[in-house]
C-alpha cells in the first residue's frame, strides 16, 4: 500500500511564508509526477504546481498563474517527498492543499495517490 502524508500548513499573516511537505511511503518503484492542488470554499479545485519527472529530460515544473513568482515546487527523490515553498502569501491563498503523486508500484503498474489535505490560512 502507498500513503501520502502532508505537513507544514497553518495560519500565517499576509506576506508571510510557509513550506508544505508531502512524503510518500510504502511499496514504491518510482514516482513520475508530483502535484499540489488546492480547494477553497466556493471555488474550483486548482492545480497550483506540478513537477513531472522524465528519465531523459530530467524534470519540468509548471505553476498556476496566480502563484507564479511566489511559490516553488521541489522534490527530494531519496525521500519520496515533494515540497511547496509558498512566499508572499495572500489571503486568497487560503485553502486546503492536497498533494497528488503518480506512483509506479512496479515497472508496469501505476496509479494516482492523494494526501489527506492540509489547511493553509492567510490572514489579512
Report on the structure:
The structure is a single chain. The chain has no helices and eleven strands. By secondary structure, it is an all-beta fold. The strands form two sheets. Strands 2, 4, 5, 6, 9, 10 and 11 form a seven-stranded mixed beta sheet that branches. The chain is elongated and about 45 Å long. It starts with a strand and ends with a strand.
Number of helical segments? 0
List segments where confidence is low: pLDDT < 50 over at least 5 consecutive residues.
Answer: none
Strand content: over 45%
Alpha-beta content class:
mainly beta
Number of strands: 11
Could you give the distance between the termini? 41 Å
The 3D shape can be described as elongated
Biggest sheet statistics: 7 strands, mixed
Query: Using only CA atoms, what is the Rg?
Result: 14 Å
Task: Name the average pLDDT.
Answer: 94
Task: Note the topology.
Layout: E1 2-7, E2 10-13, E3 18-26, E4 30-39, E5 46-54, E6 58-63, E7 71-76, E8 81-86, E9 95-104, E10 110-114, E11 118-123
Parallel strand pairs: 2-11
Antiparallel strand pairs: 1-3, 3-8, 4-5, 4-9, 5-6, 7-8, 9-10, 9-11
Short description:
The protein is an all-beta fold and 124 residues long. The protein has strands at residues 2-7, 10-13, 18-26, 30-39, 46-54, 58-63, 71-76, 81-86, 95-104, 110-114, 118-123.
Amino acid at each position: 500500500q502507498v500513503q501520502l502524508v502532508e505537513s507544514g500548513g497553518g495560519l500565517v499573516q499576509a506576506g508571510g511564508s510557509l513550506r508544505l511537505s508531502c512524503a510518500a511511503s510504502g511499496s514504491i518503484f518510482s514516482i513520475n509526477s508530483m502535484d499540489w492542488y488546492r480547494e477553497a470554499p466556493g471555488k474550483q479545485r486548482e492545480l497550483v504546481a506540478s513537477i513531472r519527472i522524465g528519465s531523459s529530460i530530467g524534470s519540468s515544473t509548471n505553476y498556476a498563474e496566480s502563484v507564479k513568482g511566489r511559490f516553488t515546487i521541489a522534490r527530494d527523490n531519496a525521500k519520496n517527498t515533494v515540497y511547496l515553498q509558498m512566499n508572499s502569501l495572500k489571503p486568497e491563498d487560503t485553502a486546503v492543499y492536497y498533494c497528488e503523486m503518480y506512483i509506479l508500484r512496479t515497472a508496469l503498474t501505476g496509479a494516482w495517490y492523494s494526501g489527506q489535505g492540509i489547511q493553509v490560512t492567510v490572514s489579512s
